[in-house]
Amino acid sequence: GALGLGLQYAQLTSYKTTPTAATASIGATGTWSVFVTLFLPVTGVVALSASGDAAGSYVKAAVLGVIALVVVVGLFALILKSEKNAVRIGKVADSIINWCIHLFKKDKNVDVSTQIMTLRTDIVDLVKRRWHVITIAQISVSWAQFAILYAALVGVSGSAGTIPLLTAYGCWAVSQLGILIPLTPGGLGTVDAVLIGLLTTMGVDNGAATAADLVWRASSYIPQICIGLICIFYWRWDIRKHGDKKPTEAPATA
Fold first, then answer.
1. How far apart are CA 115 and CA 93, in angstroms?
2. What is the rounded CA–CA span in Å between residue 178 and residue 183?
């Protein structure tokens, strides 16, 4: 993830994107990704309930997801509203996080306040103007991922043996909570384990569920990797051919 962020920044700034705009776009994308990750499981429980499947065991997760989403979005809105709010929230976060660190007798402190202020400075103008477009785009990306999974389910099970669309969506959406477990990039493995378990619980054959998950992962990763490698090689060739196009920030005017 850190390598990807650095590469995005380098590519954007090499093509006449100002450092401020590049940082804002990357920061907003990462923040909205967290929002959508918390939002999807809630929609998943609603989908399972609407399809008639027993979703009672997941209601607690949905409630927690709603609470977490409201808290995170609320804090984010306060941070964007004013610099004073950002400072207060940063200080509270510093005290809580550093208290937890000191419980494990770690002799170090984390400066969350500075990171919060930097994030606010970078993305406040962008979010105020384009929050609705960013939200629609981020949700569309996620739903496109589900479309790939459902196509894989139909392919390995046959249209007659595929579970209903809402049930499949509910399983996939709830499984996205695995992304929040920071063990592997993109929830690789954690999301898959939860997804396969939920699909088999809803009546999908274990082999078909595993096959659909593998096809979904391969269809999601392999094209991106191939296209990404081609773009990286082209980018390096283009930079060598035409020189660095990186812009400089315009000087501040009174």
1. 11
2. 9
